[in-house]
Amino acid sequence: MPTRIIFENNSSGKLGEILEKENKKNVLVVTDKGVLNAGLLNAMFQSFDNSNISYGIFDEVEPNPKSSTIRKGVQKLSE
């Protein structure tokens, strides 16, 4: 998928609709526990649900991720 930058209010809340138009059906969200627990991704998750986009969450990213963290993320992607 080519890089596309969308800069507007509630753009993360429109991501499901955008992916649906691109015929994308599965997403892996890569984040850390702080962002996830703060609810900063809730609008995005709701947009996925509204567009029937399946998603997985990998929330084990730490600052300056180690190679082992990247391997865990790749493993999650292949599930």
UniProtKB/TrEMBL annotation:
Coiled coil regions, renumbered to chain: none
Keyword terms, alphabetized: Oxidoreductase
Protein name (record): Alcohol dehydrogenase iron-type/glycerol dehydrogenase GldA domain-containing protein
Organism: Rhizophagus irregularis
Gene Ontology molecular function: any one: alcohol dehydrogenase (NAD+) activity
Domain Alcohol dehydrogenase iron-type/glycerol dehydrogenase GldA: 2-78
Family membership: Belongs to the iron-containing alcohol dehydrogenase family.
